[in-house]
Specification:
The chain is α+β, with helices and mostly antiparallel strands. It is built from 7 helices and 9 strands. Helix 2 (25-34) crosses helix 3 (38-48).
């Protein structure tokens, strides 16, 4: 069973930017996966991912910047995150068909089943969504389409270190 939610983004209801935006699925997905507020995430996506107002973020730019963030990290507001670009072994299923092994893209539903813990930004055809601890976070009306094929997936984790551990 897939848990669905579309209101898990901090500050989205009070954001004037969000009220006037279109095609902001990547902003929403990244905000939900990092538990950051909409306006802060919107600014980062505008500057780092080249998103123009009321236009979507291009998948090529998402891939390029997430690969860069895998090496350098990603900072949203005051918090730094590590990004891990998930390869084919995590985004594809392997089948045996007529004696030959083939790889097929996972559906969102099977990706959630295989990744029940953690925060992920997932791209599907011309769209992005978040999966946080097995919950699908997507735009209203999009969340009931779990059979979409996963094009790319990025695991996002906060680099916060417990201050008590720093002493040792």
């Amino acid at each position: 069973m897939i848990n669905l939610t579309s209101t898990s983004i901090k500050g989205i209801k009070s954001s004037e930017i969000a009220k006037s935006e279109n095609n902001d699925c990547f902003v929403r997905a990244l905000a939900a996966a990092t538990d950051q507020d909409y306006d802060t995430t919107h600014e980062l996506v505008r500057t780092k991912f080249g998103r123009k107002s009321k236009q979507g973020t291009k998948n090529l730019m998402i891939t390029t910047q997430m690969l860069k963030a895998e090496d350098e990290g990603l900072k949203i507001g005051d918090i730094e995150y590590s990004v891990r670009v998930l390869g084919k072994t995590r985004t594809h299923n392997r089948y045996k068909l007529y004696g030959e092994h083939i790889m097929r893209k996972k559906t969102v539903k099977s990706f959630i089943k295989d990744n029940p813990k953690g925060s992920f930004v997932v791209t599907v055809s011309k769209h992005a969504l978040a999966i946080v601890d097995g919950k699908l976070i997507d735009n209203k009306g999009e969340e009931f389409r779990p059979t979409r094929k996963v094009d790319g997936a990025y695991k996002i984790k906060s680099k916060k270190v417990d201050s008590q551990l720093k002493l040792f």
